[in-house]
Amino acid sequence: MSANRTSRTRLARAAATVVLSALSLTACNDGAGVNDEGSVGSSTAAPPSESVPASEAPADGSPASSSSSSAAQPVPAGSKPAANAPATNAPATKAPVSSGKPVTCEGSNTKTVAAPLNRPVNHMLLTVTNTGSKPCYLHTYPALRFGEAQAVPPVLKDSKPQAVVTLSPGESGYAAVNLSAADGSGSHGRTEKSLTVYFHGPSGNESVGAGAHPSLPATGVYIDDSLNVTYWQQSMDDALTW
Fold first, then answer.
1. Contact call for residues 222 and 179 (beta carbons, < 8 A)
2. Residue 219 burial (10 A CB sphere; 0-12, 13-18, 19+)
3. By the 8 A CB rule, do 102 and 84 touch?
4. What pLDDT digit, counting tens, does each position of 53-104 carry?
5. Count H helices, E strands: the chain?
6. 6 CA to centre of own chain
């Protein structure tokens, strides 16, 4: 009897030991047990997400773009330029074209230059340039006054052109002046240092507008009674023919 009792006692103790061991394992699985083995758990924890600067983080919490928001974006090939974009292929502005009814050439709308020539000898070339904004007519021939002369030189009738000389703005007309006889046969020779050029109207019998006062050489020009002029010519070559 005593042997059986002893055996039961041992079995009871062994069972109690098993129960105590089970209770110890259960205690190790509560919060205290996790804290004790935190060093093991930390080795498997997920790495923290990469921080994003506040200035780049979207307000709605969505992931920030990897490129800066201020970077220039490519323009699609088919896109249209902005409405206020400056035009680069605008047509050039055309220069104004002279218009209006032609007027008579005279001192206020022309510039006159007097140039003595070596050939033909004893000749001078008058050049009249239209400085106005309208075409002008050079009627007949220049009426010249050297110094204080009371009469104008005669015109070479054979030099009359087929049409009235017309000058567009910027164009020039010409007349030649035969100052003196090439062989010295002229009379009443003298030197003059001033010249006034008057312009004729359509009839050729009166002067119109202001006269021109082209400069002469400082030494003056020599003239005599053989002095004469040509009609106005459209080209210089025609004027120097006479």
1. yes
2. exposed
3. no
4. 444 444 444 444 444 444 444 444 444 444 444 444 444 444 345 568 999 9
5. 4, 11
6. 123
Respond yes or no on whether the N-terminal peptide bond of residue 120 is cis (omega within 30° of 0). yes
The tokens describing 93, both together, are 């502005």
Asked whether the beta carbons of 137 and 239 are under 8 A apart, the reply is no
In the structure encoding, which two tokens stand for residue 137, read together? 């007519």
Both tokens assigned to 109: 């709308």
The SS3 call for residue 202 is coil
- 192 close to 221: Cβ distance less than 8 angstroms: yes
Sequence-separated (6 or more) residues with CB below 8 Å from residue 189: 180, 222, 223, 224
How many residues comprise the chain? 242
Residue 229: strand pairing partners? 155, 177
